[in-house]
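Schema walkthrough. Field components (list of strings):
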Amino acid sequence: MPKKMLPLWSYFIIDALVIAICCTGFYFAYYRIPRELNSENIVISNPHKHSVIEGATSADADPSESEPAQESSEDWAKKFADKFTSTVVSTENTYTSPNISITVEQYTKSDGRHLITYYVADIYIAKIDCLQCGFAKDKYGVGYAEDMLSMDKRFNAILAINGDYYGNSKSGVVIRNGIVYRSTPNDSDVCVLYYDGTMKTFTADEFDLEKAIQDGAYQAWSFGPSLLDENGESLTDFPTSRVTPKNPRSVIGYYEPGHYCFVLVDGRDSDYSVGMTMAELSSLMQELGCKVAYNLDGGQSSVMTFNDTYANQPYKGGRPVSDCILIKEPD
Amino acid sequence: MRTFKNILYNLNIILAGMFIVFQILDLYNPTMRFIGNSVTIYLMFAFCVLSIYNAVTLLIYNRKKENWKKAGK
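Field assembly_structure (string):
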């Protein structure tokens, strides 16, 4: 008796089902199942903190060996003294204290056909410790994600914005709060915030981890692209950008040591805000007067929280993310 | 042997289908990098080897078939 064979089309149906199962299984196994990654745990100490040598006197100090004075946090407190207040003053869209000054403003503009709504958080800090990064579930790894509001409350943040979603990839430089977790670069631009408060962006080829450590890197993110050129002028071409159409966007901007901004553009809602292209975002950051501006993870990840509430209207309520950048009172 | 070959042909289709899905997903969300990560590199290698194997066996079969026709079988 010849063996009865299934019709040929049934094999293709089975193949299609197996494709769906394999793709779904791969997605969950590779991106969703939480697993900790091995951190390189390279600690970068603040080169601008003065060290006290026991028993040393002023006579021991050799003037020829002294380094040029770096702008310290005490300088920021004096430089931006008009921004800070002696006690904590908090309103619906402002927060001031002896160490932090934040003003969150909402803006709406038109691109000719649609509305674009964005939020600018203008930030002054007296100490670099006021700007920190946090990991979802306090774990460094893949598959760990947490709602921004939950992270905001857990870290006692006054202001928070989503980070670069390092957990989506196994490459890309990760330096958080002075610790190098991962030094493997990918093809993204890298943004480095140094202990002295300065911020620089590098292409993947330009970035040198050893030099960054030597210069006192405090935070480093890998997403990008960088939105301004070395003169603070806007760009129109973004070779490393993979999502250039109009979308919700998150940006960190730098004016000078101690003065930064978070910019959050809402999008994917034609009645409220359609979002921005990368070129429009670049123009906005130039208009704001930033010297450096760096694009972070966008889309549904774009969330800003202020005073334990959402500052923006995240697309579909936002989504859990793997890390955040926050402003908080120093410990 | 025929069953084994049929499995390889279907595996080839499955791998090709997976890469088509990954390519479409990368178009919508390039940051996920479905193609080019540490696992799909190996899948791509397997797909290439399977494609070569299946193409070679098909060419050999076609050559044999021609020879059989010439021999009047």
